[in-house]
Write a structure and sequence with these properties.
Largest sheet: 7 strands, mixed
Strand content: 15-25%
CATH architecture of the largest domain: 2-Layer Sandwich
Distance between the termini: 17 Å
Number of helices: 24
CATH class of the largest domain: Alpha Beta
Number of domains: 4
Structural class: alpha+beta
Radius of gyration: 47 Å
């Protein structure tokens, strides 16, 4: 005990360490994700801010040039009108001088000079006399204006010959197409419109021809970066890149430094480019990231301290409650062992009893013990319902077998109270239905037990009938029935005021008439919940003091329309066979092929068919399947639908395209996982003979074998042995067995073994906290060896690493496939809760719901790792 205590504390410490690591990894992942989005957003905002700032500068320069253009056009129109009215040279020159003088001293706009050639004569508003050799008609301002037609021509920066300052010139051709008027504007006034910025390392204004209009380094003004003097230089790359960028920011290396360039086109001719050094551009962002990272680390440290405090408190609680938990566990085991011992010993005593009164006492002991076990099962089912874990498992079942089991369970109880017990069954009811056999038996037993409990005089009866339902979709009328079960008693009945509470849990009738009735009040409540799960309903009618009637209606699918016949006669002539032997068959001459990419599923097949003496070939991929079907004939092929590389439908199509295949007429059955989106018609339309739902049920597999294998290859149990007919008695038309029937096995020996040896489920008791052992054993045909092997393979599977790699690499196709395989593997071992999580992630990846995957992937992988650790520990304890 002490060593187990130490081991338990080690596990808690290990879990604490895992939680710390998981929290740290989660913080890291979340931080990386958040910072990634944050950095991307901030970078885009910085780039947008740079582009916006540059655009504002360009707008300012454009406005300055537009103001000059407006002045030029107004003056041009005045000059043209003056010329049209015959103005003389002195008048024209006076006009230009007046305009120039006015705008030299204007508050909102200052120009340097205004001049031009009008009717082949040169005029200057600044009263400037050209130097010798100055030919106005050869100057750019005159020659460029006609090329722009009615648009203003922009002339690159040059020195004003009169003032010696750098100026920008704009010129405009007059309507006579020979006269040109020009305006000089100071470059310093143009640059004054540009806002200063801390981020700007360099401001360049360059035209489309590569000529520098303005540069932060004034020595560069007027240079042509596209001329031969700059070929191959950084300056030429800058000029070309600005032209190609179309206004988008770009990075360029200029004299050994990286610059981010923001450019905007002005007047269709000039580019205003702002160059910002990359390192300085992102420095504030890097500082912010560093500060936030430190805050996150601090938060993680605080959470780690909080987890440490919780861990310490939890350890103290564990140590304080360990003795109490051990006591309760021990008491539970002792009670269970004692109950099993009582029932087992009572069975042994019954063999040697000859006195009728003693037999009656023994039967009462057996009935009471079974009632206790039934009550325990009811409590467990209620717990499953409250936790949402109760599921309906539909299967093929025989109606007579269900009624036979219910009769055998309840007839001794009624007889012990001296009550008449009748079973009245419509002989025309279909013999084979599809539904949850176990839940239907539980519903009938709960109603009969409740009726017997509250009936002291008279009797209890069970009536079984059916109604044909109208067609539902593709189902015909005879495919679907409403199974009707009516339980009537002559008991105390139910008061009107109490009818609302009979379906509430743990509520019993405390009236004086029923003080002696024991029970927890679970029967009707559980029955109601089970009916909801099965899609059925219950109707109650009762008269206080006379009795009650409970009518249950459950829709069921018909698998065999052959009538069941007379129940009493069949019961009288029934053969006592072991239930598991009912479906056993032999086919030693048959050869089948099973194709599935999961080795666990192949082992399940082998476990189901281990006694069939069949020849079984296996393939782990579609490629292996095609090789086998090309070289050998098979009597039946089972083909998994969802496989990597080639899925089942692709494999089936290629099989049918083989010209000389020996399996042209071999029936192929598709294996489809539960919950997978498919329709029956989609498989039948492809040519599949049928399909089976995974996880497979043994009865479904045997049914498919018997139906699709050649009849001459199948040897059923009836072919190998003659059944033995037990002796029974009938009392008052009611079946009432008085003695033990002798069938294929000795019932007493079977019951004795169940007492002296633990059951198969009990041998896996250490797994019950995290696995549905019964479901896992059922999946592998109740073969202990196969189940252990499946658990070992589940623990050693690399699927979790594969799916993590797909998640990290955003490989969603393979991610979806591996999630599907993990779902199948988890269902196969009874890890149903884990399987639901994998199924949700598979569906999310199929529907491209990335947010769901990002929120649940890490948690699912952590729970899966914990499950593997628990399974591994359980295997070691075995």
């Amino acid at each position: 005990m002490f060593s187990k205590t130490i081991e338990s504390e080690k596990r808690v410490r290990a879990l604490y360490g895992i939680i710390l690591v998981a929290v740290g990894l989660t913080f890291a992942a979340v931080s990386a994700y958040v910072f990634g989005d944050y950095v991307e957003t901030v970078q885009q905002e910085i780039l947008n801010a740079g582009s916006l700032s540059n655009e504002r500068d360009a707008e300012a320069i454009d406005g300055f040039l537009a103001r000059g253009e407006s002045i030029l056009r107004v003056t041009t129109r005045i000059a043209e009108k003056s010329l049209d009215h015959g103005a003389k040279q002195a008048q024209i020159e006076s006009l230009l001088v007046s305009e120039a003088e006015y705008y030299k001293h204007s508050d909102d706009f200052t120009l340097c000079n205004m001049y031009g050639i009008l009717r082949e004569e040169f005029f200057n508003g600044g009263r400037w006399t050209p130097a010798v050799g100055y030919v106005p008609s050869n100057r750019p301002w005159y020659q460029n204006a006609p090329m722009e037609k009615d648009k203003v021509a922009l002339i690159p920066t040059h020195l004003n010959p009169h003032t010696g300052e750098q100026v920008v010139t704009i010129s405009l051709r007059l309507s006579d197409r020979k006269s040109v008027l020009a305006v000089d504007m100071y470059l310093k006034d143009l640059l004054a419109k540009v806002k200063k910025s801390d981020l700007s390392n360099m401001l360049v204004i360059i035209d489309k021809k590569g000529v520098v209009i303005s540069h932060t380094d004034i020595a560069q003004n007027g240079r042509n970066y596209k001329s031969s003097d700059f070929w191959g230089s950084d300056e030429e790359k800058l000029a070309n890149s600005i032209s190609y960028a179309s206004g988008d920011p770009f990075v360029i290396n200029l004299r050994g430094k990286d610059y981010r360039v923001f450019s905007t086109l002005v007047q269709g001719e000039w580019y205003v480019a702002r160059l910002v050094e990359e390192r300085g551009l992102w420095a504030p962002l890097h500082l912010t990231i560093l500060r936030n990272a430190m805050i996150i680390v601090l938060i993680y440290v605080l959470i780690a301290l909080l987890l440490t405090a919780l861990y310490s408190k939890y350890m103290r609680l564990i140590r304080a409650n360990r003795s109490k938990t051990a006591f309760l566990t021990s008491m539970s085991n002792e009670i269970r062992s004692a109950m099993n011992g009582i029932l087992g010993m009572n069975t042994i005593v019954q063999k040697d009893l000859h006195d009728d009164s003693m037999k009656e006492y023994s039967n009462n002991i057996q009935s009471a013990g079974q009632s206790i076990l039934s009550l325990v099962n009811d409590v467990l089912d209620v717990s499953k319902i409250e936790s949402g874990r109760l599921s309906i498992e539909s299967m093929e079942y025989d109606v007579f077998s269900v009624l036979q089991e219910c009769f055998n369970e309840n007839e001794p109880k009624a007889k012990a109270k001296g009550l008449a017990f009748h079973v009245d069954c419509d002989p025309d009811i279909p013999s084979c239905l599809w539904g949850d056999e176990n839940r239907i038996i539980q519903i009938i037993n709960n109603l009969l037990s409740n009726a017997i409990k509250f009936t002291e005089v008279g009797g209890v009866s069970l009536s079984v009938g059916f109604d044909n339902l109208p067609p539902m979709g593709s189902l015909r009328t005879d495919d679907y029935i409403m199974l009707k079960l009516a339980v009537k008693d002559t008991g105390v009945g139910i008061r009107k005021e109490d009818r609302g509470s009979i379906f509430r849990k743990y509520i019993t009738d405390d009236s004086n008439e029923n003080k002696s009735v024991e029970g927890m009040g679970l029967g009707l409540s559980l029955t109601q919940e089970l009916l909801k799960k099965c899609g059925g309903q219950m109707t109650v009618s009762s008269r206080y003091g006379e009795g009650s009637s409970f009518l249950v209606e459950i829709p069921q699918l018909v698998l065999n329309t052959e009538p069941m016949g007379d129940f009493a006669m069949r019961y009288r002539n029934a053969t006592r066979k072991n239930k598991d032997l009912a479906d056993v068959f032999l086919a030693p001459e048959a050869r089948i092929l099973i194709v599935d990419d999961v080795e666990l599923n192949l082992k399940v097949f082998r476990g189901f068919l281990k006694n069939s003496q069949m020849k079984i070939d296996e393939a782990l991929s579609g490629h292996q399947c095609l090789q086998l079907v090309e070289s050998r004939h098979y009597d039946l092929i089972f083909l998994d639908h969802m496989m990597p590389v080639m899925d089942g439908i692709d494999v089936y199509r290629k099989m049918r395209m083989m010209e000389k295949s020996p399996n042209k007429d071999t029936p192929v059955i598709a294996l489809v996982s539960e919950g997978e989106s498919f329709t029956k018609d989609s498989f039948l339309g492809e040519g599949f003979a049928d399909y089976l739902i995974k996880p497979l049920k043994e009865r479904d597999l045997f049914r498919a074998m018997k139906w699709y294998l050649p009849k001459q290859l199948v040897l059923t149990l009836e072919d190998l042995s003659e059944p033995m007919v037990p002796s029974t008695n009938m009392m008052d038309g009611v079946v009432a067995p008085d003695q033990k029937n002798k069938g294929v096995y000795d019932d007493d020996e079977i019951e004795l073994r169940s007492v002296t040896a633990p059951t198969l489920v009990e041998r896996f008791k250490q797994f019950e906290e995290f696995l549905d052992v019964k479901a896992g054993l059922n999946y592998c045909a109740d073969d202990e060896e196969i189940y252990v092997e499946m658990l070992q393979e589940y623990v050693g599977s690399p699927l979790c690493r594969n799916v993590d790699n797909c998640y990290k690499n955003s490989d969603w196709d393979n991610y979806r496939f591996y999630m599907h395989v993990l779902y199948d593997s988890s269902v196969a071992i009874g890890a149903l809760s884990m399987a639901d999580k994998f199924r949700n992630l598979e569906n999310a990846s199929r529907e491209s719901r990335m947010k769901v995957i990002q929120e649940n992937h890490e948690l699912a992988m952590a729970l899966h790792a914990e499950l593997i650790e628990n399974i591994q520990r359980g295997l070691e304890d075995r």
